[in-house]
Amino acid sequence: MKVVLPGGTGQVGGVLRRALTAAGHEVTVLSRRPTRAGDVEWDGRTQGPWAKELDGCDVVVNLAGRSVSCRYTPANLRAMMDSRVDSARAVGEAIAGAARPPALWLQMSTATIYAHSYDTAHDEASGVIGGTEPGVPAYWAYSVRIAREWERAQEEADTPDTRKVALRAAMVMSPDRGGVFDVLSRMVRLGLGGPVAGGRQYMSWIHDRDFVRAVEFLTAREDLTGPVNLAAPQPLPQRDFMRVLRRARRVPVGLPATRAMAELGAFALRSDTELLLKSRRVVPGRLLDAGFSFAHERWETAARDLVGR
Question: Which site from 86, 91, 244, 260 is most exposed, i.e. has the minimal number of CB atoms within 10 Å?
Answer without folding.
Answer: 260
